[in-house]
Amino acid sequence: MAGVISCSETYNKGTITLDALIIKSENCSDLKLISDLVKKMGLESKSLSEEDIEDFGLTIFMKQADRTSTVSRETVMPKLDTAYKQ
Prior knowledge:
Elements (H helix, E strand, L loop, with lengths): L1 E10 L2 E11 L3 H13 L4 E4 L1 H15 L8 H13 L1
Antiparallel strand pairs: 1-2, 1-3
């Protein structure tokens, strides 16, 4: 289980804005405690599934990918075919 907590904070040296904080724990009671604290502080939280977390990681990976070079269809299709048959 994981949760996303939206928040921003001002420090002596300026403002630091954090779009989201993801907290992952195998212990549901710890996440419940954090979720209750977030609600008490008036902040928002959302539970994420393992699939949501994987999708988020894949999105980051795709945004960081090198898009300057290309690969031919003849190179890609046999590899996809092999992967599909496994």
